Amino acid sequence: MRKSVFQVNKRQKEVLSQLEQDGVVYVTRLSERFGVSEITIRRDLETMERARLLTRFHGGARLPEEPAEAVPLFDEKGRRNLDEKILIARRVAELIHEDDMVFMNSGSTVTHIPQFLQNKRVTIITNNARMACVDYGESVSLLLTGGIHNKITQSLTGDLAKRALEQVYATVCVLGVNGISAEDGITTSLYQETEINDAMLNRCRGKRIVAADSSKVGRTLNFISAPIDKIDMLVTTSRADPAEVEKLKARGVEVLVVPCEPAGGEHCM
């Protein structure tokens, strides 16, 4: 059975934003703020609780104790398909040019890209807190968005991160994703990261690239970050599902497939 994809409406987004800021929301106050009935607000909260975005209590809701899906620690996620991720990162680095202004999100594959940019003068704007610990060389300038720090994913999210991105236009956008498919676009297991991904795509005036190892191709997670027509290019490896690759090409996505056994002896295990 195909997994359902949860889409959050504008009012629910604002409720979640307030919840991130205050830690708790109340039905009566939300009803007054949005000019809708308390029944409507309760229905919103019930819908979001089913998606594990919050936990309801009598008269309101609070942040959940656990994320919407079991999300692996960043270090654990980063070790999965590590050989593929490094090959993809090297290929993406070749697509970035001198003086580019590059958006990079908190994806584990994306974290490896700066090490292959050390001879290029580029600026990276990212919500990836782990990026500050990467050896990216003197020619690379790194700007962190700030925001709410997620200790599990090492991402920075929330209004502060979004406002920082809204002040910049990038020439290239590189996103790591939890899933990409021709039908559902790019998806993630954490709602908070969808708004960051969307903001990066919207503020990019050049090529919009997804860097995804083979396990992400054809996969759909809970929350939509963007439809597939917002993506110009996918960089993946030869282990990706060829049928899904063809579907993505048919939707207008340029797909660069990195061989898993390139010259030089590196290979995907």
On the 0-100 scale, what is the average pLDDT?
A: 87
Number of helices: 8
Q: What are the low-pLDDT stretches, counting only 5+ consecutive residues below 50?
A: 67-74
Radius of gyration over C-alpha positions, nearest whole angstrom: 19 Å
Domain module tally: 2
GO molecular function, one term: DNA binding
Domain HTH deoR-type: 8-63
InterPro entries: Carb_Metab_HTH_regulators (IPR050313), DeoR-like_C (IPR014036), DeoR_HTH (IPR001034), NagB/RpiA_transferase-like (IPR037171), Tscrpt_reg_HTH_DeoR_CS (IPR018356), WH-like_DNA-bd_sf (IPR036388), WH_DNA-bd_sf (IPR036390)
Organism: Anaerotruncus colihominis DSM 17241
Structure description:
The protein is α/β, with parallel strands linked by helices. The protein folds into 2 domains: 14-62, Arc Repressor Mutant, subunit A; 74-258, Rossmann fold. The chain is 30% helix and 24% strand. The protein has 8 helices and 15 strands. The chain has a 7-stranded parallel beta sheet, with helices on both faces. Strands 1-3-2 form a 3-stranded antiparallel beta sheet. α2 (27-34) crosses α3 (38-50). It is globular, with a radius of gyration of 19 Å.
What is this structure's SSE topology?
Blueprint: H1 10-22, E1 24-26, H2 27-34, H3 38-50, E2 55-57, E3 60-62, H4 74-79, H5 82-94, E4 101-104, E5 122-126, E6 140-144, E7 148-150, E8 155-157, H6 159-165, E9 170-176, E10 179-181, E11 185-188, H7 191-202, E12 204-211, E13 223-226, E14 233-237, H8 242-250, E15 254-258
Parallel strand pairs: 4-5, 4-9, 5-6, 9-12, 12-14, 14-15
Antiparallel strand pairs: 1-3, 2-3, 7-8, 10-11, 11-13
